[in-house]
Design goal:
Distance between the termini: 37 Å
Shape: globular
CATH topology of the largest domain: DHBP synthase
Bound molecules: adenosine monophosphate, magnesium ion
Largest sheet: 8 strands, mixed
């Protein structure tokens, strides 16, 4: 961790684990260091980065004071909730992609927190993958992405949540979810004691992309084309069309119903628990991709558990090419 913090302090990049996915880190207030993130990831300059802070006392240095943000920070930080607020000048315009706002969160992973403490200033950290690829949840995924250009990494093992943070916009009159994630809409509503929007008012998905440019429809996609079914039953019914293809199953339960010969099945979890599915999702997508099959088949999850909208969001994005 000491090594990574000196690398970051010198204006270079390092990779650190967070509780969501691995992050490609640089000093948030150094425009030159930020430009290195965009270059290595091949990230469009229109897609802003998240600034990571150690605790709430750092918030007002980079964003306009907001009582709602403070309440949410007290409730959910450190943790996988990112809030978008009007930015202060300390945040360079290339980090915010020219927007007058900045996305901020305080990560929970002990290694990331230690580095924040050592560096003693905000750290920008988008997912440590090439732009539009599946986010990395292990050190090995990061190395597969960047190969010989890979910056120094701290190996924290597999990430706890395995899905990117929830992004909540507080810069408009109505708080609104820009990206569903591990912290759900009902949890945020309970904490605030008020209703929030699950997407910007009267806006189509294209408008969400403008509001939160990283949320374009093709984000998080594997290279193998993905066919998405609306339920497991539909996927089982269509299995004759999947010979020589790979199928990703939410649990062991129905795996013996795939009786057609020549289908490769991979499990997203043994027991169908959404927490396990979220944690394994990107790892299994990468594994399925490496099989080099002509197609991968997956299905939307059903159920009322808080994580399901976030998982289904990523499955839909994985299937948009
Ligand atoms: P990543 O860190 O790669 O998982 O992506 C960060 C996400 O936060 C992307 O979806 C961005 O579009 C979104 N984001 C970052 N900054 C802002 C901002 N100022 N306003 C709206 N969305 C943002
Ligand atoms: Mg990303």
């Amino acid at each position: 961790m000491e090594d990574c913090s000196s690398v970051i302090l010198s204006g270079e990049l390092a990779v650190l684990p967070t509780e969501t996915v691995y992050g490609l880190c640089a000093l948030a207030c150094d425009p030159l260091a930020i430009s290195k993130i965009f270059k290595l990831k091949g990230r469009p300059s229109s897609n802003p980065l998240i600034a990571h802070i150690l605790n709430l006392s750092w918030l007002n240095a980079i964003s306009e004071p907001s009582p709602v943000a403070f309440k949410l920070g007290e409730f959910f930080w450190p943790g996988p909730l990112t809030i978008v607020l009007p930015k202060k000048n300390l945040i360079p315009l290339n980090l915010s992609a020219g927007l007058p706002t900045v996305a901020i969160r305080s990560p929970a992973h002990h290694a990331f927190r230690k580095v924040l403490e050592l560096v003693n200033q905000p750290i920008a950290a988008p997912s440590a993958n090439l732009s539009n690829r599946v986010s990395p949840t292990t050190m090995e995924h990061v190395i597969q992405n960047f190969g010989k250009h890979c910056p120094p990494i701290y190996d924290g093992g597999p990430c706890e949540h395995g899905l990117e943070s929830t992004v909540l916009d507080l810069s408009e009159r109505h708080p609104c979810i820009l990206r569903p994630g591990p912290i759900s809409l009902p949890e945020i509503e309970n904490a605030l004691g008020m209703k929030i929007l699950d997407q910007p008012i009267k806006h189509s998905l294209d408008k969400i992309s403008q509001k939160s440019p990283g949320n374009s429809k093709i984000h998080y996609a594997p290279q193998t084309p993905v066919r998405l079914f609306k339920s497991l039953t539909h996927m089982i019914d269509q299995q004759e069309t999947m010979i020589n293809q790979v199928v990703l199953l939410p649990s062991l339960e129905k795996s013996n119903e795939f009786t057609v010969h020549g289908i490769t099945t991979l499990l997203l979890s043994k027991d169908g628990n959404p927490r396990s599915i979220a944690k394994n999702l990107y790892h299994v997508l990468q594994k399925a991709d490496q099989l080099g099959k002509e197609k991968m088949n997956i299905c939307l999850l059903s159920g009322t558990e808080a994580l399901i909208p976030a998982i289904n969001d990523r499955l839909v994005r994985a299937s948009n090419k």
